[in-house]
Amino acid sequence: MRILITGASGRLGSALNAVFSARGHDVTALSRDQLDMTDFAATRARITSAQPELVLNPAAWTDVDGCAREPERATRINGFGAQNIALAAVEVGAAVVYVSTNEVFDGRLNRAYYEYDVPNPPNAYGYSKWVGEQGTMQVNPKHYIVRSAWLFANGGKNFIQTILNAAQAGDSLRVVANEVANPTYTNDLADSIAELVESGRYGTYHLVNEGWTSRYDFARYALDRAGFTGTPMEKISTFEWNRLSTPPPYCGLVNLAGASVGVKLRPWQEAVDAFLRADGLLAS
Question: How far apart are the C-alpha atoms of 132 and 6, rounded to whole Å?
Fold first, then answer.
């Protein structure tokens, strides 16, 4: 299959490039510098030239606090940019995968969210991604909307590495205990997207590592597995962590649709172990 990937220099884009290339697909991988998805004419020209059968669109502005400062810019990039890609894709007969977020939900149901629960974004980032979902679905009937959460990847800045670096430096650790979601390993997400695409089942999916936990317990697990069992950590609330964006408080996702077509991800604890092992950080 001829595949075009946006945001290919990002962690998820890089993982998707590796996974789809390994599966024998003909991949064109474009970085942000090579494709400005807010420019429809340029986007159309690039996609028309490549003639893909599938466009994978993980490209996004993921700085949630930056999105809070500049909400219209966030919507132009994550929302209208995604629509531009979906429209250019449909003009060449290509399907599209749009990678979205659990933050399209407000996290106030006091239970995990299923694929067709009604979104109500609590912040500018979530709103911009919801606009991207709508723009993709409305213009391209051959779409996969893939929501995920709390991504972590080897080789880049992420929550686990930040926690471990602080522990190694002997810094005091204060971690939010009342924010809940699914820690998800980028490698597992990329594999699951490949499996989903190969199923040919269009629709909306929650692809996350199984289970949900708090930021605090996520951090505690990573510390313990990396050998920092004696490192103290203080529980705090989101009200004590000053930031511009407001994250959803309880926003676990249930992978019901994906599981129904055979696409399942391992538990988040196993994914954290795999991440630590790959970086040589898993304690014996």
Answer: 14
Using DSSP, state whether 128 is helix, strand or coil. Answer: helix
State the burial class of residue 279 (Cβ atoms within 10 Å of its Cβ: 0-12, 13-18, 19+). Answer: middle
Is the distance from CB of 215 to CB of 238 less than 8 angstroms?
no
Sequence ranges of the domains in the chain: 2-156+183-210+252-266
Kindly write down the DSSP assignment for every residue of 187-248, as one continuous string: HHHHHHHHHHHHHT--EEEE---BS-EEHHHHHHHHHHHTT-TT---EEE-GGGS--SS---
Catalytic annotation, pick one of 98, 113, 125, 185: 125
Instruction: Give the Cα separation of 184 and 270 in Å (integer).
Output: 10
SS3 222: helix
As a CATH number, domain 2-156+183-210+252-266 is 3.40.50.720
Q: How many other CB atoms are found less than 10 A from the CB of residue 178?
A: 15
Q: What is the pTM of this model?
A: 0.96
Tens-digit pLDDT profile for residues 136-164: 999 999 999 999 999 999 987 889 999 99
Closest CA to 142 of 214, 179, 94: 94
Work out the burial of residue 280: count CB atoms within 10 Å of its CB; fewer than 13 is exposed, 13-18 middle, 19 or more buried: exposed
Amino acid, res. 92: V
125 is catalytic: yes
pLDDT in tens, 16-27: 999 999 999 999
